[in-house]
Fold these 2 entries.
Entry 1:
Amino acid sequence: MNRGIVPGETARQVSGQTRITGVFGWPVAHSLSPVMHNTAFADLGLDWCYVPFAVAPDSLPQAVAAIRALGIHGVNVTVPHKQAVIPLLDQLTPEAKAIGAVNTILTTEAGLLGHNTDAAGFKRSLLQANFEVRGKRALVLGAGGAARAVVYALLREGASITLLNRTPERAVNLAKSVTGDITAGALDLATVQSWADKSQLVVNTTSVGMWPLVDASPWPESVPFPGDALLYDLVYNPRRTRLVNQALQAGARYIDGLWMLVHQGAEAFNLWTGMHPSTELMYRAADQALGGKDAAISNGR
Ligand code: ATR
């Protein structure tokens, strides 16, 4: 059936020259990475393609072997494979080693290189929002995998950190595993209250506020959000979380979590292709794929 596609304009042809990239995840059907990367490839006129690969945990070794066997150029790695993939690779970058997780694999002459672009992506999105990290105090909520990359990036940029988690032991353990000015404690009303006004940046790395429990916030309702601080909520579904609304009510600026996804992707894109994609375009592509429900986007501008 003729669908009216104009060759070379709307159809993307995969040829013998096309370079293949993709993402290993489980599940992966809702990943926004394919639309982000394929849009950026098309925008830059690159004969590259990005494919979602549903890789069950048991199949990860075969999937990594397939990168080698099929000559796949680069792969993103997402939940639940970010740690399990490490022993299957040939080399790790210092960032991946320090964060203890790999989100990007690069095929090199020396074999498969495991990298982590979460920290660099996080740093770049703060830069885009004109936020200077050095000398600031950041209040980081949560102590899971995402927090580890955020903490690594902030300490490297010279911030002081207060790391609060529902399970305080997890925050204490994360703090012990890094070098720098970092205090760990419980994510409770009194502790948040005592640090709120001392912090210029608040980062939510917990999943609280994520769809469908959109009325929840990790920030206690009775504590005013610091109006001079910048909020970075890593939750992006929805973009306007309850926490974002708390920050807006206090007059604070915010960055939504889709920017983190975009910037870690843009860093991976750059590692694979050597080119800088348009992060605005990648954001629009991902936002549209999500349904573009929250039109209000503040990236500090
Ligand atoms: P990720 O890799 O996305 O960081 P994770 O490692 O599962 O995911 O971590 C999830 C984070 O959200 C943790 O800090 C978790 O707190 P606990 O360590 O106490 O489990 C936090 N989190 C999840 N649900 C939460 C809730 N209802 N209230 C507070 N924190 C919550």
Entry 2:
Amino acid sequence: MRTRLLLAFLGFAALVLGVLWLFQTFWLDDIYRSLRLAELQKSASELSEALHESESYEQFDRAVSELASENGICVSVYEIREDQIGKSGVMLMEKHVNTFCFIHNIGSSQLLNSLYSKAIENGGEYLERVDFSSLLSTEEKSADSGENVIRARVEEFGSSEVLMLFNTELIPLGSTVSTLRMQLLFISGILVVLAVIIAFIISSRMSKPIREMSVEASKLALGNYNVNFDGGGCSETENLSVTLNHAAYELSRLDKMQKDLIANVSHDLRTPLTMISGYTEAMRDLPGEATPENMQIVIDETKRLTNLVNDMLEVSRYQGGTQELKVTRFNLTDVIRTTFERYGKLRERDGYSITFEDRIGGDVFVEADEGKILQVMYNLVGNAVNYTGEDKAVIIRQSVVFSDSGEADEVMIEVIDHGIGISEEELPLVWERYYKVNDFHRRANMGTGLGLSIVKSILLLHCARFGVRSSLGEGSCFWYRLKIEDIRRVDM
Ligand code: ADP
């Protein structure tokens, strides 16, 4: 990063210097000349306008003075008169900007006549370059004496003609260019040093948080989750640090969950296995212990083991994305009734009351995977039974969700209990794999922590909306929605 920044800075400095070099030394003379010539041309046009617009001699005189001092040029205005000998110029006014104005020192009517006739030949305007140093005396010559440029312009004015002469000196810039070259050399040196220093400072500042973060990342790679990524104030590195901190948090959570899983699974496997081995040993060794009740306990515990293994397999299938939906159109209300009846029979002896609350008054048909939706119902009702409260009541409710246009759009299935409920912090976590509320008294005879994760995977595969409302001590309501394909009212 440091080398790249340094190269970028040096490149930029070289570019700036190159442009400066071209403009200040190479093209300086050309630019200066074209600017001065453009100034002369502009002055000629402005004075022509002033000549026609001025209402008095004084006003024109003022315009000429302003123009001469603003642009730093010498101006002379002649009126051309014709007599028996020919045309001759009569000086109307002359404006100096410095002590020596070439056109004011010519004193020769020959040059005046030649400028006039060349301007007439050229359509009213003529530019003359004069190397006047040959005309000057040695005292008048200075080091900066250079080329003189005269622009002559002839204008019709009433019945007569006016000749305007504009004169400026093109000072040779040789000495200025060599001074600038010298300056540029110094500037180049200073810029290179500055570029190195700035590149060094910036690269150190920019790379510091990245270096620190990579140290923390290597700790993370070794399994140390107690890391903190600091972005160092730059928005990009700050974003990166937020992402990395989040990743570290997620990894540590996953790690904890995996450790919990091993503890939970081994606990869940051990309990039925201990029961099975205890009962079977007793039946083998003790006469009269091989009763149908004891046999039933062994069968129940074996089923528990099978369920646990099946759940784990199911989750890993969803995780691997190998589960596919067998979508058919079926009667969802019938599926609810089946769940309701099966659980009803199972729980009758324990005093559970499972009610089906039909707010539609008919059978709802949906397009989904019937087997998987049945599994969703089993898992949700199973949880409600497991976690319900003193009243041992579970309600399964079906109702309609209307679209904005007032049509029956979706069917909403809710599984409600009035049990222990779930705290606000744990609410989003219950859908996660292997998540169980950390209560060992309850855990021993309850599920695997996989039921809701399976429900979530199935509903996500159906692109269905689902959720949970719950508060501690008041009970929970797990719900999901499916698109209604058809409703057959009971009275039809
Ligand atoms: P489990 O097999 O342990 O029930 P789930 O994935 O079905 O696993 O549920 C995850 C956790 O969510 C449960 O351990 C329990 O703490 C909580 N939970 C699920 N349903 C309910 C409910 N109806 N009332 C209270 N807590 C619930």
